[in-house]
Protein: tRNA pseudouridine synthase A
Amino acid sequence: MRILLQLTYNGANFQGFQIQNEGRTVQYELERILKRMHRDFVRIHPSSRTDKGVHALCQYVHFDTHLNLTPSKWQHAFNSSLPDDIYITDVREIPETFHSRYDCIGKAYRYKIYQTPYRDVMKTGLETWYPYDLDLDKMNEAARTFLGTHDFTSFCSAKTEIENKERTIYSFTVTKTPDGYDFRVIGSGFLYNMVRIMVQHLIDIGQGRREDDTEALLAARDRKEAGKTAPAEGLYLEKIYLTTEALEKDIPAGTKIITKNTPKSLTTDPGML
Structure:
Protein backbone atom coordinates (compact mmCIF):
# COMPACT_ATOMS: atom_id res chain seq x y z
CA MET A 1 0.00 0.00 0.00
CA ARG A 2 1.05 3.62 -0.46
CA ILE A 3 1.08 6.02 2.51
CA LEU A 4 1.04 9.82 2.36
CA LEU A 5 2.54 11.81 5.24
CA GLN A 6 1.86 15.48 5.86
CA LEU A 7 4.60 17.01 7.98
CA THR A 8 6.05 20.24 9.26
CA TYR A 9 9.62 20.98 10.31
CA ASN A 10 11.93 23.68 11.59
CA GLY A 11 14.81 23.67 9.13
CA ALA A 12 17.26 25.72 11.22
CA ASN A 13 19.37 22.72 12.21
CA PHE A 14 19.02 20.68 9.02
CA GLN A 15 21.30 20.60 5.99
CA GLY A 16 18.11 20.53 3.92
CA PHE A 17 15.47 17.94 3.18
CA GLN A 18 17.49 15.65 0.92
CA ILE A 19 20.12 13.29 2.34
CA GLN A 20 23.64 14.75 2.24
CA ASN A 21 27.08 13.25 2.76
CA GLU A 22 27.29 15.03 6.11
CA GLY A 23 24.85 16.64 8.53
CA ARG A 24 21.23 16.14 9.57
CA THR A 25 18.49 15.98 6.95
CA VAL A 26 14.72 15.53 7.15
CA GLN A 27 14.83 12.63 4.69
CA TYR A 28 17.32 10.73 6.82
CA GLU A 29 15.19 11.10 9.96
CA LEU A 30 12.09 9.73 8.20
CA GLU A 31 13.86 6.87 6.42
CA ARG A 32 15.68 5.92 9.63
CA ILE A 33 12.33 5.17 11.28
CA LEU A 34 10.98 3.29 8.27
CA LYS A 35 14.10 1.13 8.09
CA ARG A 36 13.72 0.17 11.73
CA MET A 37 10.04 -0.68 11.27
CA HIS A 38 10.52 -2.69 8.04
CA ARG A 39 13.97 -4.09 8.86
CA ASP A 40 14.88 -2.98 5.38
CA PHE A 41 15.44 0.28 3.51
CA VAL A 42 12.30 2.16 2.39
CA ARG A 43 12.61 5.18 0.11
CA ILE A 44 10.39 8.22 0.67
CA HIS A 45 9.32 10.60 -2.11
CA PRO A 46 8.76 14.27 -1.18
CA SER A 47 6.72 16.93 -2.93
CA SER A 48 9.60 19.39 -2.49
CA ARG A 49 13.26 19.34 -1.46
CA THR A 50 13.91 22.36 0.71
CA ASP A 51 17.42 23.79 1.12
CA LYS A 52 19.59 24.10 4.20
CA GLY A 53 17.93 26.26 6.85
CA VAL A 54 14.54 26.44 5.08
CA HIS A 55 11.41 25.54 7.04
CA ALA A 56 8.19 23.77 6.05
CA LEU A 57 4.72 24.48 7.38
CA CYS A 58 3.32 21.88 4.99
CA GLN A 59 5.31 19.18 3.22
CA TYR A 60 4.16 15.85 1.78
CA VAL A 61 6.04 12.59 1.31
CA HIS A 62 4.84 9.17 0.25
CA PHE A 63 6.26 5.67 0.60
CA ASP A 64 5.23 2.11 -0.17
CA THR A 65 4.85 -0.47 2.57
CA HIS A 66 3.65 -4.00 3.26
CA LEU A 67 2.82 -3.13 6.87
CA ASN A 68 -0.88 -2.98 7.62
CA LEU A 69 -1.12 -0.09 10.08
CA THR A 70 -3.90 2.44 10.54
CA PRO A 71 -3.12 6.11 9.83
CA SER A 72 -3.20 6.90 13.56
CA LYS A 73 -0.68 4.15 14.31
CA TRP A 74 1.62 5.38 11.54
CA GLN A 75 1.41 8.88 12.97
CA HIS A 76 2.21 7.66 16.48
CA ALA A 77 5.10 5.51 15.25
CA PHE A 78 6.73 8.48 13.56
CA ASN A 79 6.06 11.18 16.14
CA SER A 80 7.22 9.04 19.05
CA SER A 81 10.60 8.59 17.34
CA LEU A 82 11.18 11.82 15.43
CA PRO A 83 13.29 14.67 16.85
CA ASP A 84 11.54 17.75 18.22
CA ASP A 85 11.99 19.78 15.01
CA ILE A 86 9.85 17.45 12.81
CA TYR A 87 6.21 16.54 13.34
CA ILE A 88 3.77 14.42 11.29
CA THR A 89 0.46 16.30 11.17
CA ASP A 90 -1.57 13.84 9.09
CA VAL A 91 -1.37 10.37 7.54
CA ARG A 92 -3.56 8.75 4.93
CA GLU A 93 -3.56 5.78 2.59
CA ILE A 94 -3.54 6.87 -1.07
CA PRO A 95 -3.84 5.18 -4.48
CA GLU A 96 -0.63 3.64 -5.79
CA THR A 97 -1.00 5.80 -8.91
CA PHE A 98 -0.38 8.95 -6.86
CA HIS A 99 3.12 10.46 -6.61
CA SER A 100 3.94 13.26 -4.17
CA ARG A 101 6.30 14.99 -6.58
CA TYR A 102 4.78 14.41 -10.00
CA ASP A 103 1.18 15.04 -8.90
CA CYS A 104 2.10 18.30 -7.16
CA ILE A 105 0.72 21.13 -9.30
CA GLY A 106 1.81 24.12 -7.25
CA LYS A 107 3.64 25.40 -4.18
CA ALA A 108 3.35 28.43 -1.95
CA TYR A 109 6.35 29.96 -0.18
CA ARG A 110 6.43 32.71 2.43
CA TYR A 111 9.52 34.75 3.28
CA LYS A 112 9.51 36.61 6.60
CA ILE A 113 11.66 39.59 7.56
CA TYR A 114 11.46 41.57 10.79
CA GLN A 115 12.63 45.10 11.46
CA THR A 116 13.98 46.13 14.84
CA PRO A 117 16.84 48.47 15.79
CA TYR A 118 18.85 45.46 16.96
CA ARG A 119 18.85 41.78 16.00
CA ASP A 120 16.40 39.70 18.03
CA VAL A 121 18.25 36.53 19.01
CA MET A 122 14.93 34.79 19.71
CA LYS A 123 14.19 34.97 15.98
CA THR A 124 17.57 33.71 14.85
CA GLY A 125 17.05 30.89 12.38
CA LEU A 126 13.34 31.67 12.04
CA GLU A 127 13.14 35.11 10.38
CA THR A 128 15.55 37.41 8.59
CA TRP A 129 16.55 40.69 10.22
CA TYR A 130 16.40 43.64 7.83
CA PRO A 131 16.20 47.00 9.67
CA TYR A 132 16.19 49.31 6.64
CA ASP A 133 13.23 51.29 5.28
CA LEU A 134 11.43 49.62 2.37
CA ASP A 135 8.91 50.95 -0.17
CA LEU A 136 5.96 48.53 -0.17
CA ASP A 137 4.41 49.88 -3.37
CA LYS A 138 7.64 49.57 -5.35
CA MET A 139 8.16 45.99 -4.17
CA ASN A 140 4.64 44.94 -5.13
CA GLU A 141 4.93 46.64 -8.51
CA ALA A 142 8.12 44.71 -9.24
CA ALA A 143 6.59 41.47 -7.89
CA ARG A 144 3.78 41.72 -10.47
CA THR A 145 6.36 41.51 -13.26
CA PHE A 146 7.11 37.94 -12.18
CA LEU A 147 3.50 36.85 -12.81
CA GLY A 148 2.98 34.48 -15.71
CA THR A 149 5.33 32.03 -17.40
CA HIS A 150 8.98 33.03 -17.77
CA ASP A 151 12.46 31.61 -18.05
CA PHE A 152 13.93 32.20 -14.57
CA THR A 153 17.59 31.60 -15.39
CA SER A 154 18.48 35.01 -13.94
CA PHE A 155 16.68 34.17 -10.71
CA CYS A 156 18.04 30.74 -9.83
CA SER A 157 21.37 29.44 -8.62
CA ALA A 158 24.10 29.01 -11.21
CA LYS A 159 24.40 25.47 -9.81
CA THR A 160 20.90 24.58 -11.03
CA GLU A 161 21.23 21.42 -13.11
CA ILE A 162 17.71 21.40 -14.59
CA GLU A 163 17.83 22.51 -18.23
CA ASN A 164 14.23 23.75 -18.46
CA LYS A 165 14.15 26.86 -16.29
CA GLU A 166 10.67 27.96 -17.32
CA ARG A 167 8.21 28.29 -14.45
CA THR A 168 4.80 29.92 -13.92
CA ILE A 169 4.08 32.35 -11.08
CA TYR A 170 0.38 32.66 -10.17
CA SER A 171 0.59 35.13 -7.32
CA PHE A 172 3.32 37.24 -5.70
CA THR A 173 2.52 39.79 -3.01
CA VAL A 174 4.40 41.71 -0.32
CA THR A 175 2.47 42.65 2.82
CA LYS A 176 3.35 44.78 5.83
CA THR A 177 3.25 42.91 9.12
CA PRO A 178 3.35 44.30 12.68
CA ASP A 179 7.12 43.75 12.84
CA GLY A 180 8.26 43.67 9.21
CA TYR A 181 7.23 42.27 5.83
CA ASP A 182 5.99 38.97 4.40
CA PHE A 183 6.68 37.96 0.80
CA ARG A 184 4.26 35.27 -0.44
CA VAL A 185 4.61 33.61 -3.82
CA ILE A 186 2.60 30.81 -5.43
CA GLY A 187 3.88 29.06 -8.53
CA SER A 188 3.83 25.87 -10.56
CA GLY A 189 7.27 25.07 -9.16
CA PHE A 190 10.53 26.71 -8.19
CA LEU A 191 14.19 26.34 -9.12
CA TYR A 192 17.17 26.11 -6.77
CA ASN A 193 17.29 29.34 -4.67
CA MET A 194 14.68 30.95 -6.94
CA VAL A 195 12.42 32.33 -4.21
CA ARG A 196 15.31 33.72 -2.16
CA ILE A 197 16.84 35.47 -5.19
CA MET A 198 13.49 37.01 -6.18
CA VAL A 199 12.89 38.19 -2.61
CA GLN A 200 16.33 39.81 -2.36
CA HIS A 201 15.68 41.49 -5.72
CA LEU A 202 12.46 43.02 -4.36
CA ILE A 203 14.18 44.09 -1.14
CA ASP A 204 16.90 45.85 -3.13
CA ILE A 205 14.21 47.70 -5.11
CA GLY A 206 12.28 48.53 -1.94
CA GLN A 207 15.38 49.97 -0.31
CA GLY A 208 16.24 51.98 -3.42
CA ARG A 209 19.48 50.12 -4.06
CA ARG A 210 18.41 49.33 -7.63
CA GLU A 211 15.79 50.41 -10.12
CA ASP A 212 13.00 48.08 -11.12
CA ASP A 213 14.74 46.20 -13.92
CA THR A 214 12.82 42.97 -13.35
CA GLU A 215 11.59 42.62 -16.92
CA ALA A 216 15.07 43.18 -18.34
CA LEU A 217 16.57 40.62 -15.96
CA LEU A 218 14.05 37.99 -16.98
CA ALA A 219 14.89 38.61 -20.62
CA ALA A 220 18.65 38.51 -19.96
CA ARG A 221 18.57 34.93 -18.64
CA ASP A 222 21.86 35.55 -16.87
CA ARG A 223 22.33 34.87 -13.14
CA LYS A 224 25.21 37.35 -12.99
CA GLU A 225 22.81 40.20 -13.80
CA ALA A 226 20.60 39.66 -10.75
CA GLY A 227 21.47 40.45 -7.14
CA LYS A 228 22.39 38.35 -4.15
CA THR A 229 20.43 35.53 -2.52
CA ALA A 230 18.39 36.29 0.61
CA PRO A 231 19.29 34.23 3.72
CA ALA A 232 17.57 30.87 4.10
CA GLU A 233 16.26 31.42 7.62
CA GLY A 234 13.30 33.56 6.56
CA LEU A 235 11.91 31.08 4.02
CA TYR A 236 8.97 28.76 4.65
CA LEU A 237 7.43 26.17 2.35
CA GLU A 238 3.89 27.13 3.28
CA LYS A 239 1.65 24.95 1.16
CA ILE A 240 1.69 22.15 -1.41
CA TYR A 241 -1.15 21.96 -3.92
CA LEU A 242 -2.24 18.48 -4.95
CA THR A 243 -5.51 19.38 -6.69
CA THR A 244 -6.53 22.20 -9.04
CA GLU A 245 -9.47 23.02 -6.75
CA ALA A 246 -7.16 23.80 -3.83
CA LEU A 247 -4.86 25.91 -6.01
CA GLU A 248 -7.73 27.89 -7.52
CA LYS A 249 -8.81 29.00 -4.04
CA ASP A 250 -5.49 30.74 -3.39
CA ILE A 251 -4.82 32.47 -6.71
CA PRO A 252 -6.68 35.26 -8.56
CA ALA A 253 -9.92 34.17 -10.21
CA GLY A 254 -9.55 33.21 -13.84
CA THR A 255 -5.82 32.48 -13.60
CA LYS A 256 -4.82 29.72 -16.00
CA ILE A 257 -3.20 26.79 -14.22
CA ILE A 258 -0.30 25.16 -16.03
CA THR A 259 0.08 21.40 -15.45
CA LYS A 260 2.22 18.79 -17.17
CA ASN A 261 -0.45 16.20 -16.50
CA THR A 262 -3.90 16.40 -14.98
CA PRO A 263 -3.85 15.29 -11.31
CA LYS A 264 -6.17 12.32 -11.12
CA SER A 265 -5.07 10.27 -8.15
CA LEU A 266 -6.58 12.32 -5.32
CA THR A 267 -10.20 13.39 -5.40
CA THR A 268 -9.68 15.80 -2.52
CA ASP A 269 -6.68 17.74 -1.32
CA PRO A 270 -5.44 16.63 2.13
CA GLY A 271 -5.27 20.30 3.09
CA MET A 272 -3.45 21.84 6.03
CA LEU A 273 -4.45 20.81 9.52
